[in-house]
Amino acid sequence: MKNTVRTFQMAKEEGRKISMLTAYDYSTAKLMDEAGIDAILVGDSLGNTMLGYEDTVSVTMEDMIHHGAAVARGTSKTMVVIDMPFMSYQTNEYDALVNAGRLMKEGRAGAVKLEGGQSVCPQIKAITSAGIPVMAHLGLTPQSINAFGGNRVQGKSEEAARKIIEDAMAVQEAGAFAVVLECIPAKLATLITEKLAIPTIGIGAGNGCDGQVLVYQDMLGMFSDYIPKFAKKFADVGTVMKNAFADYIKEVSEGTYPAEEHTFKIDDDVLGKLY
Ligand code: KIV
């Protein structure tokens, strides 16, 4: 059975932590699904990790559908959440609903994620009223990087912390089934987690949240443009890949690859007729 919003809510109620990672392609999604991850986020971080942009601002609906559908094809149990890209929902409720619908129909998402608090509550209401589950995202919201002036921890002052708490209550009230808390102090994230009935998913928000999400290239040491403080390297796959690429280059240049066992044969009498 596929994980759903119910899996998230039951995990919170039973005190079971929710595991979530980003993925952007079929084969990575399949490995995560086989490993038993609860949910995959097709994040608009694909703008950085897959497309090489310096931020997520240029990511399009077509990018999200293309990568989202590939991830969905690679999963059987894992829930797939697809990010709504910059300006696909901020404009108005109509755009938000149409674009969320496309991520469900064409991307085969189980839910969509969007960034923002009170200001996007009308959009959350419109999308959830159409039967589409919405995950909210507060704290350091990368689509607003230009307004923040960089990747800074959010919610450190009383005023800023209060605003995040109010936003969290507002998105829950608007119908969000979960909320990502990014780059906020751990004790603030714990307080929000205690106040909310819906699960919180932390990234750089300490271990008091109901679940955690990481960008998979960060946890595998595959992305070196920017390494956030909270990103634990669970394996150094980046180095393994670089070494394998170097070995391949060496064997090709020395003529030792392909070897006998990688080679197809033809009968000598057939070959003889070709000369
Ligand atoms: O796009 C993304 O990968 C995200 C996570 C950082 C939560 O939004």
Question: What are the salient characteristics of this protein?
Answer:
about 280 residues; alpha/beta; eight-stranded parallel β-barrel; about 15% strand; binds 3-methyl-2-oxobutanoic acid
Task: Note the total helix count.
Answer: 12
Quaternary state of this entry equals single chain
Number of strands: 8
Order of helices and strands: HEHEHHEHEHEHHEHEEHHH
Average pLDDT for all residues: 97
- Helix content class: 40-55%
What summary fits the major beta sheet?
A: 8 strands, parallel, barrel
Ligands in the model, by name, code or SMILES, are: 3-methyl-2-oxobutanoic acid
Instruction: Give the neighbour order of strands across the main sheet.
Output: 1-2-3-4-5-6-7-8
> Kindly, what is the distance between the CA atoms of the first and last residues, rounded to a whole number of angstroms?
59 Å
Specify the structural class. Answer: alpha/beta
Give the C-alpha Rg.
22 Å
